[in-house]
Amino acid sequence: MGFFVKLDSGSTIQMNYSSSADLASRLDGFMGFARESISDKDRLIYALSRIGDTRLMIGCVIEPGLDPESEDNDQQAVDFLFEINSHLSGLLFINDAIFDYDAECLTDEESE
Fold first, then answer.
1. Which contiguous run of DSSP H or E holds residue 17?
2. Positions of the chain with pLDDT under 70
3. CA angle 101–83–74, rounded 5-degree value
4. What are the DSSP calls for 36-98, one per residue?
5. How far is CA 49 from the centre of its chain?
6. Which of 24, 57, 99, 112 is a plausible cystine mate for 92, CB 3.0–4.6 Å?
7. What is the pLDDT, as a whole number, of residue 70?
8. What pLDDT does 65 receive?
9. Per-domain residue ranges of the chain
10. Nearest CA to 35 among 23, 53, 47?
């Protein structure tokens, strides 16, 4: 279950909701990633608290895909993800980094 977005740039984003049965295990994995990638104690406590309060997880498939090594990614697709994350007051996991609702990178190093 989810929805499909076609951007003016031509990229498409299929957004699927995780089922409640899958949510706990996915959040456990997300917490594990946070523990490995956030060394600042206060940011880690904050991130783990936010992850623990999660009630909705949306997985995205972007076509064409985003390549963290490329400068040619569709900026409209990236902007869309950050915008929807802001509106949902969510956490965004993209390119091995976790971003807060205000686009602040919570992980130690933002992928370039």
1. strand 12-17
2. 110-112
3. 125
4. HH---HHHHHHHHHHHHT----EEEEEESPP-TT-S-S-HHHHHHHHHHHHHTT--EEETTEE
5. 16
6. 99
7. 75
8. 84
9. 2-99
10. 47
CA distance 40 to 32: 15
Structure tokens that stand for 17 in this block: 């909701």
pLDDT in tens, 79-88: 999 999 999 9
CA nearest 73: which of 5, 20, 1, 13?
13
Pairing of strands 92-94, 58-63: unpaired
**What is the rounded CA–CA span in Å between residue 40 and residue 90?**
20
Placement of tokens 């802001």 in the chain: 86
Strand, helix or coil at 111?
A: coil
User: Measured between alpha carbons, how far is 93 from 1 in angstroms, rounded to an integer?
Assistant: 20
Distance between CA atoms of residues 38 and 100, nearest Å:
13
